[in-house]
Amino acid sequence: MSKVHFIGICGVAMSAIAIAFHKKGWQVTGSDVGFFPPISTYLKNNNIEFYPGWHVEKMMKGGKPDIVVAGNVACSQNPEWLYAQEHNVNFKSYPEVIAEYFVKPNSIVCAGTYGKTSSSALLSWILTHAGFDPSYMFGGLSCNNINSAQMSEDGNWSVLEGDEYKSARWDNRPKFAHYSPTHLLLTSISWDHADIYSTEDAYFRVFQQLLLPIEEKKQIVACKDDPGISKLLQVTRFTFQDVTTYARRDANYTFTNPQQTHQGLSFDIGHKNESYHIVSPMLGSYQAENICGCFAMAHQIGAPVEKIVEAISAFKGLKRRLEKRHEGAVTVIDDIAHSPAKAKSALQTLRQIYKGKIFAVFEPNTGNRRPQSAPSYSHAFDEADEVIIPVLTKLKTDPEDPDKPFDGQDLSKVISATHSNALHIANDQDLITRLATSPQPGDVIVFLGSHGFRGMITELIDKIG
């Protein structure tokens, strides 16, 4: 039996890939600094052997791994990583594993600053429902309780989330550089990850490189409404006339009449002289754009319309995408929005649905804690009645780096420049107490960020539930 070990198995993508290998009959083990729900539950339910900390003897139990998949926790202080290097154990980053075991001759990559995870998950679901038997990987947990990664047996298609963040500590290329796309779904481009891409031009260049392998122009499906994509196409050999477009109007595929309720979303997709009514249980009017892009790609590669519409109506979305964690007198919502732009979009959607006050707790990702990201916070939280910045996750920093990342107090000052009710609460219990007592019936509390908020969501729900 082949064996694979994951250093840093508790990430969403790493855990999903581990389970995909397990389902293919591999012996799978994994290690990480800590294990918390939902990932720990996800691994246990799939009978994956894992342990906390780094222990070479446990990694080598049962024999030398055929592959060691190393996440970002693999560094010069990690004994498992050092052992793999010193003893010629075959080690790979997870994008390299995706390239070797998941990429098919027809490789669809869903890329963009935002919308890529939801789009890759939905497109995987659609093509599976339509009988394409795709391999796939997306970096989120499905509310439909399907694994986030799958290696197909006989299919010739793969659907992969194309992340622009660096592949590994030792590989600064974007993850999508490994995926050899033959088809590309482009959702949006807006400068992000300032910790990796110090200028907007540097960020755009990696997307220019992503377009290079695409041989047939019509195999690119792009959002025409996005100014970043428009800018990208202007500096490549492509134009909006060449590629398949989707947008609110004046595109190959259009989405119109979006209606958002507590139960979900409905709208119409138009293509040529046909109109298709779409009903989705997902929250977020912005999801109409993601759904339209997936519809366009699936339709372009030959999926039957009735299968596409059926699949969309059954797809419940991803956890931590405006996920309702508690619904009572006060509603508690969890969302992965970790940038000002994503937070703004989530808050705009909530304002469409809820009439009460919105209390937002926000923690940005690493790149959006850099000083150069400050302008992007202007008016990002206009739809929130109160913005709370908690204690931010501690970052490893270079003592010689002149651009120190924002701490919670710094960030609250930046947001306060355009928002009168932004504050930093430096104690988790004080934050929970405030949120358990300040909101009134009909109000909404939303946690926005890629980190887990140290269990505060569960503790808050216990207090107000």
Briefly, what CATH class of the largest domain?
A: Alpha Beta
Rg from alpha-carbon coordinates: 22 Å
Strand order of the largest sheet: 8-7-9-6-12-13-14-15-16-17
Approximate shape: globular
Main beta sheet, described? 10 strands, mixed
Strand fraction band? 15-25%
- Helix-strand category: alpha/beta
CATH T-level topology of the largest domain: UDP-N-acetylmuramoyl-L-alanine:D-glutamate ligase
Helical amount among residues, as a percent range? 25-40%
What ranges have pLDDT less than 50 throughout 5 or more consecutive residues? none
Summarize the structure.
With 465 residues, the protein is an alpha/beta fold.
Structure characterization notes:
- GO terms for molecular function: acid-amino acid ligase activity; ATP binding.
- Keywords: ATP-binding, Cell cycle, Cell division, Cell shape, Cell wall biogenesis/degradation, Ligase, Nucleotide-binding, Peptidoglycan synthesis.
- It holds the Pfam family Mur_ligase.
- The protein folds into three domains: 3-92, NAD(P)-binding Rossmann-like Domain (Rossmann fold, 3-Layer(aba) Sandwich); 97-314, Mur-like, catalytic domain (UDP-N-acetylmuramoyl-L-alanine:D-glutamate ligase, 3-Layer(aba) Sandwich); 323-464, Alpha-Beta Complex (Protein-Tyrosine Phosphatase, Chain A), CATH 3.90.190.20.
- The mean pLDDT is 92.
- It is built from 14 helices and 23 strands.
- It has 465 residues and is α/β, with parallel strands linked by helices.
